[in-house]
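Lab notebook, bench 4. The sequencing result for the construct came back, and we need a structural model before the next group meeting so we can plan mutations. Quick request posted to the team channel:

Model the 3D structure of this chain.
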Amino acid sequence: MRISIDGDLCIGAGQCALTSPDFFTQDDDGFGTVVPGREDGAQGPLVREAARACPVQAITVEEREG
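Done. Here's the predicted structure in token form:
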């Protein structure tokens, strides 16, 4: 799967980093970001849970085909 965060929507609540710290962190300004190198190939229920936990739905999780 591929994960991304819409920087225009993110409010820096930090729920993604708290829920799935292996895949999400916060930048110097406190906004959510995907850990470098983790954008592709993300696995696991915590990635989806982090997307659900985002209060502004800024996280996109896309399934990859094949």
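Helices lie at 15-19, 45-53.
Will bring this to the meeting.
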